[in-house]
Amino acid sequence: MLLLLASSLVAVGSSLKHTGSISLRTSDKPSSASGDSGVGSYRQRLRNFQNVQYYGEFLLGGQKIDGIFDSGSFELLVRSTRCKGCAHPTSPYDRSKSNTYEKNGTIAKHVFGSGPCISMKGYEEVSVGPFKSKGQSFFEILAHQIQALDTAKFAAIVGIGPNFAYGNKDKTLLMSFGVKEFSICLQKPSNSDGYLTWGPTAKPEYKEKHYARAEVIGKHHWVTRMNNVTFGDPKLVPSEIVPCMSEGCAAIIDSGTSLIAAPAAALAKLSSQIKPIKEDCSNLHELPTLHFNIDGNDFALPPEAYVMRITGAVMEADSIWDILFFKPKIRKLNVCMPAFMTIEMVSQNGPVWILGMPFFRYYHTTFDRELQAMHFAVAGPDCAPQPYKVNGTTDTKALLAMDAALKQPMEVDVRSIVPPTLSGMIDLSKSNVIDL
């Protein structure tokens, strides 16, 4: 999601194969699966830009649009020719070229952490591969102050959250497609693409036996419980510097956020657990593994997953530098630092963390709307899911060993970082405690 630190909506007016796998439909492989909508499962390639933006193509009114498929939101928001003051680095949507556009006219204000956005609601035909929705509600951007959209490789934020927007009666795109289950995985090597699979990738009994499972506790977001975030062996870290140990945290698994986001106080505790990362990354091999517990399951990320090497003209990206937690004393090119940003949000389930793209490079994540659950497999070569559990147990060291040859941090152009874009319809009515 484009990180929405706080947001509101105001309406104005009216192939590694494993047992239990399911064949996928792609451009070169016919479907043999019975997907939720009757058209089978479809594996869509997500193009990688600077390792912080992953976007895919879809049709809106017959027009090819590039968008971020964002598990952190649920509405479809697109840069439009209605936006006269917008920069258009990629093709915008043009309603005058569509025979299927239907006017609604409601004006909405989305207030994101990265800036406000004014849009107009309408209805249009939306297609992704074999999936099609007629009369799908969407929002055309009329004006915005979101810096990332001026240079982004995407023109749309395609929300694939689990449920309706707050107070909204319109179906989400997943509902319209009849897709009850989808999966996201990003390949590990720098500048490699990722994949979004619409429909099932494994049989339910196989997932229950070999994948890690986490209950979705949010009404509107893919959020679950998280505890005990540590660098190194959790048993050896003093409890007073372990985030989420006493109160617990809420973790949003978000395909649209470039880094890992957490409260500043939690990141301060983490920083006390780790030695300084040398700017040239020369001590990467000495850094510990990052451990965290998601709904009773232990997960791990090696240093090459949570360390990034900053590139690009950083002096042109002050607003992005402001959200990073680990800031170097001097802003310069080719400097290494942890891939964390700050977000101050509190929910009924504790402080909010957002696990973004670094998580999806190591864990193939399946989102199940019907079961209200997420299942996690180990991301293998070409994003093929590999068992998280073997004979009922998991061996973290063995899981990470397969990627030991990488040992290089992800290179990131700071200008292209996408902050979290939690849904623009977040309910802040309960004393600033967010209802996720």
Shape: globular
Summed up, the helix count is: 7
Q: Cα distance, first to last residue?
A: 14 Å
**Percent strand:** 35-45%
Rounded Rg:
21 Å
Structural description of this entry:
- Helix content is 9%, strand content 36%.
- The chain has helices at residues 173-177, 204-210, 264-271, 303-306, 318-323, 357-360, 396-401; strands spanning 9-12, 42-49, 53-60, 63-70, 76-79, 102-112, 115-128, 131-144, 156-159, 181-186, 194-198, 212-215, 223-231, 249-253, 260-262, 290-294, 297-301, 307-311, 335-338, 340-342, 346-347, 350-355, 363-368, 373-379, 385-386, 410-413, 433-434.
- Strands 13, 14, 15, 16, 17, 20, 21, 22 and 27 form a 9-stranded mixed sheet that branches. A 6-stranded mixed barrel has the order 3-4-9-5-8-7.
- The model is unreliable at 2-19, 26-36 and 423-431 (pLDDT under 50).
Salient structural properties:
436 residues; mainly beta; Cathepsin D, subunit A, domain 1; 2 domains; 9-stranded mixed sheet; 6-stranded mixed β-barrel; 7 helices; globular; disordered N terminus
What's the helix and strand layout?
Elements: E1 9-12, E2 42-49, E3 53-60, E4 63-70, E5 76-79, E6 102-112, E7 115-128, E8 131-144, E9 156-159, H1 173-177, E10 181-186, E11 194-198, H2 204-210, E12 212-215, E13 223-231, E14 249-253, E15 260-262, H3 264-271, E16 290-294, E17 297-301, H4 303-306, E18 307-311, H5 318-323, E19 335-338, E20 340-342, E21 346-347, E22 350-355, H6 357-360, E23 363-368, E24 373-379, E25 385-386, H7 396-401, E26 410-413, E27 433-434
Parallel strand pairs: 4-9, 5-8, 14-22, 15-20, 18-26, 21-27
Antiparallel strand pairs: 1-6, 2-3, 2-11, 3-4, 3-7, 5-9, 6-7, 7-8, 10-11, 10-23, 12-24, 13-14, 13-16, 15-22, 16-17, 18-19, 21-22, 23-24, 24-25
